[in-house]
Task: inverse folding
């Protein structure tokens, strides 16, 4: 079974630009979560999508948004990039039996990440 | 707000030594607890998780963790580490009611052969 794939793997942008990252979950997985990893703040939860709807959200500004398509693939968008947005963005997929099941109740499988550098 | 603290930033052990990595959390309600591991050059993966029931949880590769509610702790243990356990270990928690997954800063484990 193919794992979680993320594209692109590396990205360089300048301040003020916007960026879109893509995540393809494991086949059959309906939940996609996004995380930001930085040396200073560590791993932080951005949001989770399930059945094309954002179900859970971390404490990030509105510049960070996402969506999920009917095939469960997800995109994350960051508008008006700031230097502090430089990070490794990780995507994780899980089966997620339903919206009442807590996040993590089904094992999350992580992708390799997209490393974003904002200059 | 919930938070997770991992006390050890970098732990260095010799093979066959016993391991205990500390994890404490701050949260006012019922929580789910996780340990993840990231081996060099590999993706983050789940080691074990606790949702309810027996507070002693066994995971993959001989790891176990004990949930002590009174101490708000979920320490990871392994009786005898191997060189292949060299990795970064992350403790994580989410509240049953808010589903906001919080990770600790991570502990880098180096096992000397």
Result:
């Amino acid at each position: 079974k193919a794992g979680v794939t993320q594209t692109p793997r590396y990205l360089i942008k300048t301040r003020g630009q916007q960026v879109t990252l893509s995540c393809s979950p494991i086949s059959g997985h309906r939940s996609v979560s996004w995380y930001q990893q930085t040396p200073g703040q560590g791993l932080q939860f951005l949001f989770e999508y399930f059945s094309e709807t954002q179900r859970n959200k971390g404490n990030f500004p509105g510049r960070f948004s996402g969506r999920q398509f009917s095939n469960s693939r997800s995109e994350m968008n960051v508008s008006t990039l700031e230097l502090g947005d430089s990070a490794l963005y990780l995507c994780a997929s899980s089966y997620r039996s339903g919206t009442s099941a807590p996040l993590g109740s089904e094992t999350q499988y992580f992708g390799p990440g997209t490393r974003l550098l904002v200059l | 707000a919930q938070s997770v603290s991992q006390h050890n930033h970098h732990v260095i052990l010799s093979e066959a030594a016993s391991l205990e990595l500390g994890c404490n959390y701050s949260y006012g309600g019922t929580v789910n607890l996780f340990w993840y591991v990231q081996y060099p050059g590999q993706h983050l993966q789940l080691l074990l998780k606790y949702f309810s029931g027996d507070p002693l949880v066994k995971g993959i590769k001989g790891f176990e963790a004990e949930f002590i509610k009174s101490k708000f702790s979920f320490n990871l243990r392994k009786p005898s580490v191997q060189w292949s356990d060299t990795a970064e270990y992350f403790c994580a928690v989410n509240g049953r009611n808010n589903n906001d997954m919080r990770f600790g800063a991570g502990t880098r484990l180096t096992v000397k052969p």
Observations:
- Chain A touches chain B through 26 residues (CB under 8 Å).
